[in-house]
Structure formats: structure tokens, C-alpha cells
């Protein structure tokens, strides 16, 4: 079965801005924090905010304290004044597109115009817009409603930003023909129009459609209506538990789209659930997929990748291929990754729900595996080189204390209590740790600065690209849990550009090193891996590869391939 995720699925600009604002406020603001009304129309996001201690208030109290965020849909102007009067610090998370409509209505109200708002009268955005029209505001949700309105000397016509574009065109065409003096403004958000157009397109190209999002979300409801209108079997779900697998079993291709208030982790969870159902029904490939998923969840595949990368780095340096170096690297990475997963279950509930469930179920077993593998790596290192052993001890200490508040006792550190609090530290430290165990430790007895530098740069750069790329895919979950990864600092676009730049630099470095005879022919072969990784990233950006187990397996396979090149060439 082919699964297609709409490129426009998920948070729109206004929703992402509102969610980012409330999470940033929660992570950086002292004192109580709440939202006035549901921040957005999505039950999972509302539940996530409640878990973070950010409730939603329905009424404005006489006295308030702390910070309150105005929801993305906006509120009447008098409500903002009342919140400030009550004593709240008000942060306005209203979508800029909604603010534009508020401004148009307010400007024309001051000039004596009546406002006609095409939208759902009970929708919070519309109720907020009516507040800017004073006593001269009317709502209409259909052409019949518009025809029933009295004629006005002066009127301005606007639309709810998530209104159906085809309906609004039909209404405005009638108004133009019958009330040509009315001022009409196209206030439907362009992302809404694109989302609706893409839903029609992918529905026509697929056998079934799954619309993901809140049942009370107006824009998601319209997507469900559009999908149904195409005649294709469709369903509107809030959670994967609502998936109708019998309907999907009759389809050879499935399209997934989502409303503007649907977070990425729900979309990805839906995609993974459908993929897992498909694989469970394929008896021939079931064992392969189960084995692959176990290797990914336990980090065994990643540990194998570390061992293979060590072999490749040894080839770059012209060192003898000793199995002990690759084994030490594999055991170290396995130990540190398992411990990291055990400590990041909270964010994995959003980024990797299957893995989070696995580690919650097998916490004791995985803890034992981490301790045994870490200890075995240290013993092997000690038996080979005391210098390498001491370096590995230091790296293990940094890994074990990464999430601990080791800076709390030091004055003048500011808000940094642990290494994890340093912005971007995770991406950089993981890459540096891999570079050390895969290229520096094996060269401790035969150290050549130039060849070690090249192999360290290759290993560090590849791991940096892998870690940063997955950090980009996990931005929403990381922001929820307060992590400050490199993509959260730089943004998605600049992060992806940096990743590609690093991979291009690695390719050029290896080509020049091989051409100058520093690494030998293996440098030419390994130079293909950064280019292959760029291709994988671009295919994911363009929707040809979906986030999930397949993508993770494919990315980690680059390290396995590096090992094979090192062994056979």
C-alpha cells in the first residue's frame, strides 16, 4: 500500500506561532501561566498543555495573577482589556492572519460600516471578530443566510480565515451582483486554500483518505467534507484508535491530510499505525519488519553502525582492522543511547511513541543492557590501552551526567543547571563523542594528526548530520519538553541548509584527501556517503520518504555501508 502525507498537513503558521509562544512562555516564565480559552482546537495539544501545568480558563476572574495567552483564534478587544484589568500579563497569540481581519473590521467600524462575516457563528474566531464590529456585526454561514440579511448603506464583507474558499467565492459573486457598493475583502488564509486544494488533489489520486485533527476544528471539518465530496472512502479521526482498518484494507493507496491545528506527532503516529497494520498483514515480510523494529528500538542497529564507522575510520587512517576497536565503539554507543532513551521517554511520547512505550515496558531490562554494555566496553578498552581507557572513562562520565544538575552548585552559571540546558549541546556532543570513539581511540598507539583529523571530521560530520536531521523532525516534541536543540535555535530551514553544507564539506574533504594520497582510494569511496545522505534528506523533504522506521533504518544504513567499504576496500 502506498501512503501519501499531504505537504500542507499539520500546523499552519498561526497555530505553530501560538504553540511556540505558549511553550516558550512555560519554559522561561516564572509564575502561573494559562490560556484564555483553548489555545487551538486540538484535544491532544490541550492535554499536553494541561500536563505541563498550563490550564485553560473559560471566564475572566476579577483578580488574576501570572501570564495568560490569548488563543490563536483571537478574542473581542474588550476581553483583552478585562484580562489586563484583572492583573494578568497578557501575551497575544492571535494568528497574524486573524489580526488582519480584526483590523479591517475595526477600521471600517470607525467609519460607520456594517461588518458581514462569512463563517460559523459559534466559532471562537468569529465571536472574536464580532467584538471589533460593535453593534454592527452580522454572521452568515451560507448564501441563504446572506440573502436573508437586510440591505446596508455601507458594509464590509470578510471571511473567517478557515472558511471554504469555494463557498466564499459563491457568496461574494452574489454580493457583487446584488450589492456592488459593499466592500469585499479576501481574508481566507492562503494556507487554508492550499490545504483544501491539496486535499482535493490527493483524494482523487488515492483509494482512501484519512483526515486527522480535532472534531471541533472548523478547518479540519472542512477538509473532511472536501475529502468526502470527492466520493472516495474517507474518515475523520482525532486519534489512531479511531482508524477503520477494514476500510483501509480495501485500498491500495491512502492519503493522509490534517487540519491546521494538528501536531506533527499525531500525523506521524497515524502514518506509523497504518504502516504497522500493513506489515502485520504481510506474513512473508512480518519477521523482517519485526526484527528491524527491534534493532531500531534497542539501538542495536545504531551500535552496529558505530562499529562499522570505526572500521571505515581505521581504513582512512591506514590502521590495521582490529575488531576490538569496533566492538568498544559499538558497546559505548549502545550504552549511551539506551541511557539517553531511558531519560527522554517524556519527549519520545511525542517523537517516538512506539519507542517510548517499549522503554517504559522494558525499563529494567534495557537499564541492565546499558550498564553491561558500558562496563564491557570499558574492560575491553582497559585490556588494550590505558590511555584509551581513561579517555573512555571521561566520555562515559560526560554521557552519564548530561541530564544531571551538575552546575547547580556553581555561582554565575545562570539558567544552565546541566549540560542538556546548553542550547544545541546534544547535537554537538553526540557528534564529538562518536568521532572520538570511532577515530581517536583506535589511533592512540599510532597517532597521525592529519589522518586522525580527516577521519574524525568524517565521523563527526556524518553523525552531526544524522542527529541534527532527526532533531529537525522532532522539533515539536523537543519544544514541548523544553529541550533547546540546534534546530530550535536556528529554525528548520537554516538547520537543513547547515546539515547539507556540512555533508558537502565532508565530500570535498575526502576527495581532496584521497587525491593528495593522504587516505588512499578509500577516501573516494567514502566521499559518496555524504552525498547519499543528502539525497535521503531531500527525498524526505519532498515527501518521497515519510518519517518513521523506514527513514530511520535508511539513515543508519549509511554507517553500515561505511563499514563494508572499509572492510572490502
Topology of this structure?
Layout: E1 2-5, H1 13-28, E2 33-36, H2 43-51, E3 56-57, E4 67-70, H3 77-86, E5 89-92, H4 96-109, E6 114-118, H5 124-130, E7 137-140, H6 143-148, E8 155-159, H7 165-178, E9 183-184, H8 190-205, E10 208-212, H9 218-229, E11 234-237, H10 245-249, E12 253-258, H11 264-281, H12 283-297, H13 300-317, H14 323-343, H15 345-351, H16 353-361, H17 363-384, H18 386-400, H19 425-440, H20 449-473, H21 475-480, H22 486-490, H23 492-515, H24 522-526, H25 528-541, H26 549-568
Parallel strand pairs: 1-12, 2-3, 2-4, 4-5, 6-7, 6-8, 8-9, 10-11, 10-12
Helix pairs in contact: 8-9, 13-14, 13-19, 13-20, 13-26, 14-17, 15-16, 17-18, 19-20, 20-23, 23-25, 25-26
Which keywords apply here?
569 residues, alpha/beta, four-stranded parallel beta sheet, 26 helices
In short:
By secondary structure, this protein is of the alpha/beta class. It contains 26 helices and twelve strands.
What would you note in describing this structure?
With 569 residues, the chain is α/β, with parallel strands linked by helices. It has 26 helices and twelve strands. The chain has a four-stranded parallel sheet with strand order 1-12-10-11, with helices on both faces. Strands 3-2-4-5 form a four-stranded parallel sheet, with helices on both faces. Helix 2 links the parallel strand 2 (33-36) and strand 3. Helix 13 packs antiparallel against helix 14, helix 15 packs antiparallel against helix 16 (353-361) and helix 23 packs antiparallel against helix 25 (528-541). The longest helix has 25 residues, at 449-473. The radius of gyration is 28 Å and the shape is elongated. It starts with a strand and ends with a helix.
Amino acid at each position: 500500500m502506498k501512503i501519501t502525507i499531504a505537504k500542507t498537513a499539520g500546523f499552519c503558521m498561526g497555530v505553530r506561532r501560538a504553540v511556540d509562544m505558549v511553550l516558550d512562555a512555560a519554559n522561561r516564565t516564572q509564575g502561573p501561566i494559562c490560556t484564555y480559552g483553548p489555545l487551538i482546537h486540538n484535544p491532544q495539544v490541550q492535554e499536553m498543555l494541561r500536563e505541563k501545568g498550563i490550564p485553560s480558563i473559560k471566564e475572566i476572574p476579577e483578580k488574576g495573577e501570572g501570564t495568560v495567552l490569548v488563543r490563536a483564534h483571537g478574542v473581542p478587544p474588550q476581553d483583552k482589556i478585562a484580562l489586563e484589568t484583572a492583573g494578568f500579563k497578557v501575551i497575544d497569540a492571535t494568528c497574524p492572519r486573524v489580526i488582519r481581519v480584526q483590523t479591517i473590521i475595526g477600521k471600517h467600524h470607525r467609519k460607520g460600516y456594517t461588518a458581514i462575516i462569512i463563517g460559523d457563528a459559534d466559532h471562537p474566531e468569529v465571536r472574536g471578530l464580532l467584538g471589533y464590529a460593535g453593534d454592527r456585526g452580522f454572521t452568515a454561514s451560507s448564501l441563504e443566510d446572506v440573502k436573508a440579511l437586510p440591505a446596508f448603506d455601507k458594509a464590509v464583507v470578510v471571511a473567517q480565515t478557515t472558511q471554504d474558499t469555494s463557498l466564499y467565492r459563491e457568496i461574494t459573486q452574489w454580493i457583487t451582483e446584488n450589492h456592488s457598493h459593499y466592500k469585499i475583502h479576501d481574508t481566507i488564509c492562503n494556507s487554508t486554500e492550499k490545504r483544501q486544494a491539496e486535499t482535493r488533489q490527493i483524494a482523487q489520486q488515492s483509494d482512501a483518505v484519512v483526515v486527522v485533527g480535532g472534531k471541533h476544528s472548523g478547518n479540519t471539518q472542512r477538509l473532511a467534507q472536501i475529502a468526502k465530496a470527492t466520493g472516495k472512502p474517507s474518515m475523520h479521526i482525532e486519534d489512531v484508535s479511531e482508524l477503520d482498518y477494514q476500510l483501509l484494507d480495501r485500498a491500495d493507496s491512502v492519503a493522509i491530510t490534517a487540519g491546521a491545528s494538528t501536531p506533527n506527532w499525531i500525523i506521524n503516529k497515524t502514518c506509523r499505525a497504518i504502516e504497522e497494520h500493513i506489515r502485520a498483514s504481510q506474513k512473508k515480510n512480518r519477521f523482517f519488519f519485526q526484527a528491524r523494529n527491534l534493532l531500531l528500538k534497542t539501538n542495536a542497529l545504531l551500535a552496529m553502525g558505530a562499529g562499522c564507522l570505526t572500521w571505515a575510520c581505521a581504513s582512512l587512517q591506514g590502521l590495521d582492522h582490529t575488531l576490538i576497536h569496533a566492538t568498544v565503539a559499538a558497546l559505548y554507543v549502545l550504552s549511551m543511547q539506551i541511557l539517553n532513551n531511558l531519560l527522554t521517554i517524556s519527549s519520545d511520547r511525542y517523537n517516538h511513541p512506539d519507542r517510548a512505550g517499549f522503554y517504559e515496558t522494558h525499563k529494567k531490562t534495557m537499564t541492565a543492557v546499558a550498564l553491561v554494555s558500558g562496563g564491557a566496553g570499558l574492560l575491553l578498552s582497559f585490556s588494550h590501552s590505558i590511555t584509551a581507557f581513561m579517555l573512555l572513562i571521561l566520555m562515559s562520565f560526560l554521557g552519564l551526567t548530561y541530564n544531571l544538575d551538575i552546575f547547580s552548585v556553581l555561582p554565575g552559571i545562570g539558567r544552565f543547571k546541566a549540560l542538556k540546558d546548553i542550547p544545541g549541546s546534544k547535537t554537538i556532543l553526540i557528534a564529538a563523542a562518536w568521532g572520538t570513539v570511532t577515530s581517536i581511540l583506535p589511533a592512540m598507539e599510532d597517532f597521525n594528526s592529519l589522518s586522525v583529523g580527516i577521519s574524525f571530521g568524517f565521523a563527526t560530520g556524518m553523525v552531526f548530520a544524522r542527529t541534527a536531521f532527526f532533531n529537525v523532525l522532532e522539533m515539536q516534541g523537543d519544544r514541548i519538553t523544553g529541550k533547546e536543540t540546534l534546530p530550535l535555535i536556528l529554525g528548520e530551514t537554516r538547520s537543513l541548509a547547515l546539515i547539507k553544507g556540512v555533508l558537502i564539506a565532508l565530500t570535498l574533504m575526502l576527495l581532496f584527501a584521497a587525491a593528495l594520497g593522504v587516505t588512499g582510494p578509500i577516501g573516494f569511496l567514502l566521499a559518496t556517503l555524504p552525498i547519499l545522505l543528502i539525497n535521503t534528506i531531500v527525498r524526505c523533504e519532498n515527501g518521497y520518504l515519510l518519517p518513521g522506521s523506514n527513514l530511520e533504518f535508511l539513515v543508519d544504513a549509511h554507517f553500515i555501508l561505511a563499514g563494508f567499504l572499509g572492510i572490502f576496500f
